[in-house]
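Design a sequence for this backbone.
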């Protein structure tokens, strides 16, 4: 198993290069590290999946023809994995048949570049894929935050129902749930009208 890692101090994202040809791995690594990315390389599809499941990766640059597991199989495995299906994949391959290109896109690849790759075009495609990944990560963080707030609100509501539902009517409990200040002590001041009345002879009646 061959696995190498090249890191720069100005890294702005982690790239995984999967290619069985050493020259291609070197060219891609050099190009990406010069752009400030952290690059990890593997020489077959099985290693690519193992690394993806072991640590976070922002963008995958994947060859199609590889030993043990080819690029199509890697794409299929990634699409079936909830943690990997949204990782952008740029297929870089010498296979230029339109059928293969279409198949890669249909299997979840973000983009397709033929070999030999153009460094300027590669940079543009990687930046676009990385932006897509960053936006999705932000969306996921936002969803998790909302879910956390929803759980806190649900716990608060259950506490109010359990605590006050024993002593007051449902209308009062509902009022507590609707108002963010419902649990504040001190009550509230209102202008009200009070009618005090008596029944003639009520004391004598009640005494008997």
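Sequence:
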């Amino acid at each position: 198993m061959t696995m190498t890692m090249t890191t720069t101090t100005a890294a702005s994202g982690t790239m995984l290069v999967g290619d069985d040809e050493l020259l291609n791995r070197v060219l891609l690594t050099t190009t990406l590290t010069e752009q400030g990315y952290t690059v990890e390389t593997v020489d077959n599809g099985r290693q690519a999946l193992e690394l993806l499941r072991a640590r976070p990766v922002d963008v995958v640059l994947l060859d199609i023809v590889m030993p043990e597991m080819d690029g199509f199989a890697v794409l299929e495995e990634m699409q079936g994995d909830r943690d990997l299906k949204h990782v952008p994949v740029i297929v870089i391959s010498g296979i230029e048949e339109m059928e293969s290109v279409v198949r890669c896109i249909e299997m979840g690849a973000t983009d397709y570049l033929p070999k030999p790759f153009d460094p300027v075009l590669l940079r543009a495609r990687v930046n676009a894929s990385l932006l897509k990944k960053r936006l999705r990560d932000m969306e996921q963080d936002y969803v998790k935050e909302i879910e956390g707030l929803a759980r806190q609100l649900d716990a608060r509501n259950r506490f109010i129902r359990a605590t006050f539902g024993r002593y007051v009517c449902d209308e009062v409990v509902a009022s507590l749930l609707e108002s963010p200040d419902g649990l504040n002590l001190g009550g509230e001041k209102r202008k009200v009208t009070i009618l005090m009345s008596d029944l003639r002879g009520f004391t004598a009646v009640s005494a008997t």
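Residues 119-164 form the longest helix (46 residues).
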